[in-house]
Design goal:
mainly alpha; 2 domains; 3 helices; 53% helix
Length: 101
């Protein structure tokens, strides 16, 4: 198992024990944790990850320059001595899409 998942399960047991009147002696503790607490925690984790991915996509959005469509984050400003134009989609967006960066 992954360390993050083991920690998530431990946290779910702790939350169950704090909220269930029977605590650790609850007769259906494992079922509650496995069927209620872990799915809710995984859902919360997925929603948080999706929000972070959305923020990165918005940050690395396209920027229109004359004759170029570039990434607004990965493209160096024109006032820099050497301007780097990262074509859109940039390696970050391609990686999020599962493509080779």
């Amino acid at each position: 198992m992954n360390n993050w998942y083991e920690a998530l399960v431990r946290d779910c047991y702790r939350e169950h024990d704090e909220t269930c009147g029977a605590g650790a002696s609850c007769g259906v503790r494992d079922d509650h944790v496995r069927n209620v607490y872990v799915p809710m925690a995984l859902r919360d984790r997925v929603e948080a990850a999706e929000a972070r991915i959305k923020a990165v996509r918005e940050m690395h959005g396209p920027w229109e320059e004359p004759g170029h469509r570039v990434c607004r984050v990965c493209t160096a400003p024109a006032e820099w001595e050497e301007t780097y134009r990262a074509p859109y989609p940039c390696p970050t967006v391609r990686a999020l899409d599962g493509e080779d960066a």
